[in-house]
Specification:
Elements (H helix, E strand, L loop, with lengths): L2 H31 L5 H20 L2 H15 L3 H24 L1 H12 L3 H14 L3 H16 L4 H24 L4 H27 L8 H4 L2 H33 L3 H37 L3 H37 L3 H7 L3 H23 L3 H26 L1 H27 L1
Helix pairs in contact: 1-2, 1-8, 1-9, 1-12, 2-6, 3-4, 3-7, 3-11, 3-12, 4-7, 5-6, 6-9, 7-9, 8-9, 11-12, 11-16, 12-13, 12-14, 12-15, 13-15, 15-17, 16-17
Length: 431
């Protein structure tokens, strides 16, 4: 195995493990409330979980922007700047967390007005939200630390944190629900405890290995105008890019729901194939963030081009493997998820769209990582904007003719366009 492949896998594999553990937090909560004797508990967790997913998704720039800027400073061997980037990111994260806590009531009201849940589900989801919102400092703090660690070529620490969170969440939720007789509030407190346990784990790991960097935190250099301007430029682009991504993702769900329960169920089940693929490809995207930034920071163009080439070799191979696996075992997987025959039968008409996901989508993931590592986030935003506009144009132009197929055609085109536009723009980074 050559050096570039080894570097890629050292970052990608722990990142994949971290990615796969993320949905477990929500799954554990759902599994516990699923045994409390009322469907409203499951609905409340689903609604509350989706709300937090949207909120934290929007502020994902704290991880991505921090990763890109840190990896470049690491490549330049500028330890002082790596520390200042972390401090800036943590500072911004804590301010956002404080704003979320202060504004929790209007956020809650707006969210539940839009979601239109039943009164009982809304009551329980509100209780879940009011407890879990106090975890915002931990979640956003972990975004900053995780991004920084990836930028420092260390994806093992975020993996350890993710595993810790899941273990603590399981234990705390079980003890509170079954030991103390709590219901949804026990699940919410368990999640909250797990989030702060993850933050404490991250702080302990960081202190154990990077304590020597603390003296570099100086207010004068921390608030340098040029550095602050660059920090907000990079993160602004990622923020608006994420808004486009959220808009497409949410609309995909709502457009499916508007076509009836069966189509909504079909689309939801088939999107699991995309979600699983994304967990794997995101791991390689994180490797791109870390290694592109490092090589650019070191001004080593030949190594940069070789590494990007190897990334795409991995991307193509994995896409072909996923296409083959989905083609052979995809329908068996559907049968494991649901025994609702009407849904399984209806999904057959749309399953070939699933087979197009890996090859259409892998480049978008890899280029996202490359552009974040290069802090060329304005180009990433442009590509996402073009792809998002194409998504809505194709759907509205075709839905009257081909129905739900228009939604999948729009989504596959959106994925492919992101990769194609970024490939065109990315030549400026590699040359």
């Amino acid at each position: 195995m050559n050096t570039h492949n080894r570097e890629i896998l050292q970052i990608a594999l722990p990142s994949i493990v971290s990615n796969i553990t993320v949905p477990l937090l929500g799954l554990i909560d759902a599994a516990i409330v699923g045994h409390l004797g009322a469907a409203s508990y499951i609905g409340a967790i689903a609604v509350g979980g989706m709300l937090f997913n949207i909120i934290y998704w929007i502020f994902g720039f704290l991880r991505m922007g921090t990763s890109g800027m840190t990896s470049q400073a690491y490549g330049q061997k500028d330890e002082a700047e790596t520390m200042r980037i972390l401090a800036r990111s943590m500072g911004v994260g804590m301010l956002i967390a404080l704003a979320l806590i202060i504004l929790q009531y209007p956020i809650e009201r707006i969210a539940f007005t839009l979601m239109k849940a039943t009164p009982e589900v809304e009551r329980l989801a509100s209780l879940y939200f009011r407890i879990c919102i106090w975890g915002a400092p931990a979640v956003l703090g972990l975004y900053s630390i995780s991004g920084w660690c990836i930028g420092m070529q260390n994806s093992r620490f975020p993996m350890y944190v993710a595993i810790t969170q899941n273990i603590v969440n399981i234990l705390a939720s079980l003890v509170l629900v079954y030991g103390f007789g709590m219901k949804i509030e026990g699940v919410a407190i368990g999640t909250l405890v797990a989030q702060y346990a993850g933050l404490l784990m991250a702080a302990w790991l960081w202190t154990s290995h990077f304590k020597r960097l603390l003296p570099y935190i100086q207010l004068q250099t921390l608030l340098a105008k040029g550095a602050i301007r660059r920090f907000f430029q990079v993160n602004r682009d990622i923020f608006f890019r994420t808004l486009c991504l959220v808009a497409v993702t949410m609309y995909f769900t709502s457009a499916g729901a508007a076509q009836g329960e069966v189509i909504l169920a079909v689309n939801t089940l088939l999107m699991h194939f995309f979600t699983f693929f994304s967990y794997i490809m995101d791991g390689f995207a994180y490797a791109g963030e870390a290694l592109v930034g490092k090589h650019l920071g070191a001004n080593d163009r030949p190594a940069l081009r070789q590494m990007v080439h190897q990334l795409f070799v991995w991307g193509i191979v994995l896409s072909l493997v996923f296409t083959l696996v989905y083609g052979i075992g995809g329908k068996v997987f559907l049968g494991l998820i649901t025994n609702e025959q009407s849904v399984i039968t209806a999904s057959s008409a749309y399953f070939y769209w699933v087979l197009a996901i890996p090859l259409a989508g892998f480049a978008a993931f890899l280029y996202d990582g490359i552009f974040i590592g290069a802090t060329a986030t304005h180009w990433m935003l442009r590509a996402m904007f073009i792809a998002s506009v194409a998504f809505f144009l194709i759907y509205y132009g075709c839905r009257g003719v081909i129905g739900n197929h228009a939604l999948w055609l729009a989504f596959i085109t959106y994925l492919a366009l992101r990769g194609i536009v970024q490939a065109f723009l990315g030549r400026k980074i590699l040359n």
